[in-house]
Amino acid sequence: MPNIKSAIKRVKVSKNKALQNSIRKSILRTAIKKCKTAIASNDPEAATLLKRAIETIDKAAAKNVIHKNTAARKKSKLVRAYNAAVKN
């Protein structure tokens, strides 16, 4: 444990940020998983789940939880899967 006041604060702040990031990552993974299962099972709510997943991905990228290119790749992959499922 650090002795300097600013270092003590940095430890507290970084711990809180790590917690928030893990929460956001969990929400992100859940949204993507729900979207994928809806697309695979031809659920009529797949479009709304896709929209919600894209919003969640964008929020995670805006908060620097994931990189912007990773966000773009994940969104692209979901949309491609959705379009393929709708086409068939």
The best one-word shape is elongated
- The secondary-structure class comes to mainly alpha
* Helix and strand run: HHH
Q: How many helices does DSSP assign?
A: 3
Beta strands, count? 0
Can you walk through the features of this model?
The termini are far apart. This protein has 3 helices and no strands. The model has no long low-confidence stretch (mean pLDDT 96). By secondary structure, the protein is mostly helical. 83% of the residues lie in helices and 0% in strands. The protein has helices spanning 5-40, 46-62, 68-87.
Summarize the structure.
This protein is an all-alpha fold. It has helices at residues 5-40, 46-62, 68-87. Helix content is 83%, strand content 0%.
Summary tags:
single chain, about 90 residues, mainly alpha, about 85% helix, about 0% strand
Write the layout of secondary structure elements.
Elements: H1 5-40, H2 46-62, H3 68-87
Helix pairs in contact: 1-2, 1-3, 2-3
